[in-house]
């Protein structure tokens, strides 16, 4: 029934991989072509700033599938190729090799790219960005010997994780951010301060409410100059100041763009038979009545699967509960929920011992939760967030409360 | 009663509770026993993704969730059903006899 139809996916990250495999799981027997601009087949990105950088996991351990598995699934990989043109009327892509690829349905899973800093000196050798396996391999080679002086710019998730990994490898680390605390946008002040203390105790020099105005060096980077004039001697600079969605292909094709590729709850873009998913997609959540763009691993997988089902005509509105984790030193952080404005924070556990579960409440409803070294409570916290339960803060905070029993009493998962 | 050939004693069956996960070890390797819908399963106790003790995880329906990064495994087959894990968890044969749960030393063939 579906034979001779061709579904093409641009972007061979997690969203693209998930979409391709989901098409096959649902019995689609037309052509599936997965195009990626990196030379490698799809792999797990989260370890790039953590276990891979630390040398604990090898590249071979990051791939989702072997090449044989893709072949068995009938997924054609076109790797190391970039889609440079999209004609939505003719339903045709042009690759950088000049090759043309016709499609019946197209998924854009083009991801995001690190924001590059343009201040003086940022073009010096020794300045690194981290997104790809190639980036991480190069950076890991620099860090694994230890004893380097490293300045990390940006204390969001990537910057904080890279700072931790660099420190664990025995390097001197300075962490600089415009904001007052690490990861404060996502986690708020209380958990931001917890992580600031974690980094300080590990010997990271924090420079919060600071910015690097200039890098200096002859031949390669030798110093970072802060806005107040303070100069930090360094051998390496790692920039992690966020990403921008890769929208160029879609924009040039006339597809609606607004903080990413605009899609509806089924992942459909403004062009017929063109879908978008993952980091690049700014999707409509009917329940929340607003759009979200999420840059986390879990979303890439789930959104890719959801878009594939839409391409097959069996789609359902994409209304996930966002989830991410971060591992820094011996601290495991997990977070569930939407980045909503919350008005009350309830803590369960011991903040000073770095073992605490935080519930974020909005008008009494639990809308998000974070576990810090309390992984056993993650599923319970997740069920409570899913239900958007109204629970007495004193009960949530009480260590005597059986959170599993409470969360399971909230109704069906 | 003697332990069946090729099996080890894991726990007393009287201690089994629905949805419970029980760690034990065989030659210093971590294993778990769990009970779902009255059926008893045995699997490796360490996540195939990154080091995490699955006894700290949780079971919902037939999915065993890793506590650290939310990988999901089917308790019957060991198959990885939710990323980030992609490798199946080895499973072991279970015999419940004489109030005891016995688990095979060697994993079952992956189905």
As a whole number of angstroms, the C-alpha radius of gyration of chain A is 22 Å
Structural class of chain A: alpha/beta
Question: Helix and strand succession of chain B?
Answer: EEEEEEEEEE
Number of helices of chain A: 10
Q: Which architecture of the largest domain in chain A does the CATH hierarchy give at level 2?
A: 3-Layer(bba) Sandwich
Strand content of chain B: over 45%
Low-confidence stretches of chain A: none
Mean pLDDT of chain A: 96
- Classify the fold: give the CATH topology of chain B: Rieske Iron-sulfur Protein
CATH architect. name of chain B: 3-layer Sandwich
From the alpha carbons, calculate the radius of gyration of chain B and give it in angstroms.
13 Å
- Could you state the CATH homologous superfamily of chain B? Rieske [2Fe-2S] iron-sulphur domain
- Major β-sheet strand ordering of chain B: 1-10-9-4-3-2
Number of helices of chain B: 0
Structural class by secondary-structure content of chain B: mainly beta
What's the count of strands of chain B? 10
In terms of quaternary structure, what is this? heterodimer
Report the end-to-end length of chain B measured between terminal Cα atoms.
31 Å
Can you describe what's shown?
The complex is a heterodimer of chains A (413) and B (111). Chain A has helices at 14-25, 67-73, 133-143, 157-168, 184-201, 248-252, 297-311, 378-386, 393-397, 403-408; strands at 6-10, 31-36, 75-79, 83-87, 92-95, 100-102, 105-108, 112-114, 127-129, 149-153, 172-176, 205-207, 212-216, 223-226, 231-233, 236-239, 243-245, 261-263, 274-276, 281-285, 290-292, 323-328, 331-337, 344-350, 355-362, 365-372. By secondary structure, chain A is α/β, with parallel strands linked by helices. Chain B is an all-beta fold and 111 residues long. Chain B has strands spanning 7-12, 21-26, 29-36, 39-44, 58-60, 63-65, 72-74, 80-82, 91-97, 100-107. The termini of chain B are far apart. Classes of the chains: A alpha/beta (413), B mainly beta (111). Chain A binds chain B through residues 14, 18, 44, 46-47, 51, 57, 64-65, 297-298, 301, 323, 325, 327, 332, 334, 375-376, 378-380, 404, 413, and chain B through 50, 52, 56-58, 60-61, 65, 67-70, 83-84, 86.
């Amino acid at each position: 029934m579906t034979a001779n139809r061709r579904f093409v996916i641009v972007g061979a990250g997690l969203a693209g991989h998930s979409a391709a495999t989901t098409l096959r799981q649902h019995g689609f027997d037309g052509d599936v072509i997965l195009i990626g601009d990196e030379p490698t087949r799809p792999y797990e990105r989260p370890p790039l700033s953590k276990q891979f950088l630390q040398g604990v996991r090898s590249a071979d351990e990051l791939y989702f599938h072997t090449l044989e598995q893709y072949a068995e699934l009938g997924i054609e990989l076109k790797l190391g190729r970039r889609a440079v043109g999209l004609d939505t009327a003719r339903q045709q892509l042009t690759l950088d090799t000049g090759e043309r690829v016709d499609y019946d349905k197209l998924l854009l899973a083009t991801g995001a790219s690190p924001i590059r800093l343009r201040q003086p000196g940022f073009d010096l050798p020794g300045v690194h960005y981290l997104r790809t396996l190639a980036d991480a391999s190069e950076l890991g080679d620099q860090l694994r010997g230890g004893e380097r002086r490293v300045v990390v710019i940006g204390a969001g998730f990537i910057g904080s994780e890279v700072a931790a990994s660099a420190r664990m490898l025995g390097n001197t680390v300075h962490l600089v951010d415009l904001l007052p605390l690490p990861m404060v946008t996502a986690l708020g002040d209380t958990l931001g301060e917890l992580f600031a203390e974690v980094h300080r105790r590990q010997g990271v020099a924090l420079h919060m409410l600071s910015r690097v105005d200039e890098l200096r060096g002859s031949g390669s980077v030798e110093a970072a100059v802060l806005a107040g004039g303070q100069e930090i001697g360094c051998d390496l600079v790692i920039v992690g100041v966020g990403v921008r969605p890769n929208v160029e292909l879609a924009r040039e094709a006339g597809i609606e763009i607004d903080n990413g590729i605009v899609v509806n709850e089924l992942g459909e873009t403004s062009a017929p038979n063109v879908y978008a998913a993952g980091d690049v997609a700014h999707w409509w959540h009917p329940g929340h009545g607003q759009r979200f763009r999420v840059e986390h691993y879990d979303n890439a997988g789930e959104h890719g699967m959801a878009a594939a089902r839409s391409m097959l005509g069996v789609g359902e509105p994409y209304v996930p509960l966002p989830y991410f984790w971060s591992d820094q030193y011996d601290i495991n952080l997990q977070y569930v929920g939407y980045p909503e404005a919350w008005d009350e924070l309830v803590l369960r556990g011991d903040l000073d011992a770095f073992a605490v579960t935080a519930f974020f409440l909005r008008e009494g409803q639990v809308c998000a939760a974070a576990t810090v070294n309390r992984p056993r409570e993650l599923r319970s916290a997740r069920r409570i967030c899913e239900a958007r339960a109204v629970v007495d803060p004193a009960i949530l905070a009480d260590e005597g409360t059986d959170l599993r029993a409470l969360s399971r009493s909230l109704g069906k998962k | 009663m003697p332990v069946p050939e090729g099996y080890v004693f894991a726990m007393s069956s009287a201690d089994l509770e629905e949805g419970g996960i029980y760690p034990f070890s065989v030659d210093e390797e971590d294993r778990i026993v769990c009970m779902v819908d009255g059926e008893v399963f045995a699997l490796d106790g360490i996540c195939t993704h990154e080091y995490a003790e699955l006894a700290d995880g949780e079971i919902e329906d037939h999915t065993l969730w890793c506590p650290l990064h939310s990988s999901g495994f089917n308790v019957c087959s060991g198959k990885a059903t939710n990323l980030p894990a992609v490798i199946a968890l080895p499973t072991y044969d279970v015999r419940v006899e004489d109030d005891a749960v016995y688990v095979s030393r060697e994993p079952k063939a992956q189905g």
